[in-house]
Amino acid sequence: MVTTPLQTNALNQLPRELFADGSAAMNTLNQVAGACGTAIAITIFTAGQHNFAIDFPAASQLEILAAGIKYAFYFITGTGISIIGLICSFFVKKDNKEADKVILNTKKPV
């Protein structure tokens, strides 16, 4: 529910002739960010399992699994996404309609 408005707002910052390039860059960024997010989640999951197994050596496999999942979800939902969203929010600019008008009114050689 957030991706489409964010992508639209980001692409509105570009001049019209760069919309295709911006869309390609956004799609590539989505793929790379998804892969990085998965890698970070699995790393935190594994570290959480390892730490729980060290602290509680008599724990069952299900308890260790649940502890790893808990650590991964706490990080991803609590801190990771919030901090990334906050940093990205500083780079959102107002729509510059004047620059778009100038670009549309210029004649390009054929």
Quick take:
By secondary structure, this protein is mostly helical. It has helices at residues 3-11, 19-55, 61-89, 97-105.
List keywords for this structure.
110 residues, mainly alpha, elongated
Structure characterization notes:
- By secondary structure, this protein is mainly α.
- It has one domain.
- 76% of the residues lie in helices and 0% in strands.
- The chain starts with a helix and ends in a 5-residue tail after the last helix.
- The model has no long low-confidence stretch (mean pLDDT 82).
- It is a multi-pass membrane protein.
- It comes from Virgibacillus kapii.
- Its main location: membrane.
State the share of residues found in helices, binned by percent: over 70%
Low-confidence residue ranges:
none
Radius of gyration: 22 Å
Strand residue content: under 5%
Q: What composes the largest sheet?
A: none
Secondary structure topology:
Layout: H1 3-11, H2 19-55, H3 61-89, H4 97-105
Helix pairs in contact: 2-3
